[in-house]
């Protein structure tokens, strides 16, 4: 006689077992029932037919970090003695279904080959998955009919897997939001905790319990909605002097970027790939001659120093200023280094009625950066390498924009001569006048 299977899947999660989709992406806040429903659904499917199921997460130091424990608890709860719970895998001894558990960080294409026969992969805590891990995992899930199940509590506007899979889902992707108030099994205790949080701090509540990303958490430098506002066109002309920020590619796949800003208006961005120092210096020379910027602030770290040397040699030293991101800030009591200062001035500027170039990559770069404080309480930004891991590229566009805030500039209406010219541009550039309008 066939054994009665008693597993009940909560309604919001029924597509897990009933629908055919390449990607099933469930997100939401604490207590939504994601982990339980995923575990139960996989057990149910693994009873019905032979499946190879991989439960993956970004970091799995030991099996304790995985959902192995949850699955074995659910197996005991339902009395599913078909499953043999071994130390590092779970096997259905009747039909051969198998659950395996893996951490994705430190995997490479070779080591992860064992996943090629997988029918379903469950990516748990998907908010922590890096772009790199996804790029290693995705091509290995290649069996016909295989599915990728994702459970996520969003953290940032641009969590990598959110951006890749859920922000603009295709027809093979199901995206569903499930919160504690959709979970019929949500314990009373959790509901009370949610209510207490709602009364205490609405921002925390929206993030922790309603599954919304933090638009500007304690650790985010930029406010995503301010950036969106600034991306709406509103300015047609501006008489403020032109400042150009130039971020120079350090590595092969980084881009060199010129940002054009006049006062409240950042109106143009030019991106160049794979240019050597001379080519970049030529482009900069042309821009200076055509657009007469009052300043070009150039990232002089790494190879940027070489571009600066060429421009200086051509006589542009009054216009072009080399900036070192790691150097001392003008306001060194408040900022741990120049990079933090420029980015924070950009943040303050975004609070005003400004306009910036509308560009998704720029948006993602701006919201990617976390802030912290050094032992003296000065603002410090998250390391570039960390951000690069999250984004999959450097913050080239945003750095170029931030560079336009490197130092205050003033246009006092002097005649400007460029290229071996004789104008005393220091007259237009006065560090003692650091009031707001100078930036
Ligand atoms: N099928 C179920 N049977 C019994 N209880 C359940 C079931 N599904 C969920 N629950 C209860 O709801 C709680 C929250 O579920 P779960 O841990 O799966 O949520 P989650 O969406 O993964 O949230 P978190 O962000 O907290 O991990 C569980 O601790 C459990 O008490
Ligand atoms: Mg969970």
Which terms summarize this structure?
binds adenosine-5'-triphosphate, 2 domains, 439 residues, Nucleotidyltransferase, domain 5, five-stranded mixed sheet, alpha/beta, disordered C terminus, 18% strand, Rossmann fold, binds magnesium ion
Across the major sheet, the strand order is 3-4-5-2-6-7-1-8
Shape: elongated
- Give the CATH level 1 class of the largest domain: Alpha Beta
Helix percentage range? 25-40%
- Give the percentage of residues in beta strands: 15-25%
Spell out which ligands are present.
adenosine-5'-triphosphate, magnesium ion
Describe the protein's architecture and organization:
α6 packs antiparallel against α7. The strands form 3 sheets. An 8-stranded mixed β-sheet has the order 3-4-5-2-6-7-1-8, covered by helices on one side. The protein has a 5-stranded mixed β-sheet with strand order 11-10-9-12-13. It has a two-stranded antiparallel ribbon with strand order 14-15. It is elongated and about 85 Å long. It has helices at 15-18, 34-48, 68-78, 131-137, 160-166, 188-200, 202-209, 224-230, 277-291, 304-313, 338-350, 360-368, 384-391, 396-403; strands at residues 23-27, 52-57, 83-85, 89-92, 98-103, 120-123, 147-152, 173-177, 242-247, 255-262, 265-273, 295-299, 320-323, 371-373, 379-381. Residues 412-439 have low confidence and may be disordered. It contains 14 helices and 15 strands. Helices cover 31% and strands 18% of the residues. By secondary structure, it is an alpha/beta fold. It has 2 domains: 11-209, P-loop containing nucleotide triphosphate hydrolases (Rossmann fold, 3-Layer(aba) Sandwich), CATH 3.40.50; 224-438, Nucleotidyltransferase, domain 5 (2-Layer Sandwich), CATH 3.30.420. The structure holds adenosine-5'-triphosphate and magnesium ion. Residues 34-35 line the site of magnesium ion (MG).
